[in-house]
Amino acid sequence: MERLVAKDAPDFTMETAIGNGTDFGKVSLADYKGKWLVLFFYPLDFTFVCPTEITALSDAADVFNDLDCEILGVSTDSKFSHRAWINTARDANGLGKLNFPLAADLTHKVSRDYGVLIEEEGIALRGLFIIDPEGELKYQVVNHNDVGRSVDETLRVLQALQSGGLCPANWKPGQKQLVSV
Question: Helix or strand or coil: residue 126?
Answer without folding.
Answer: strand
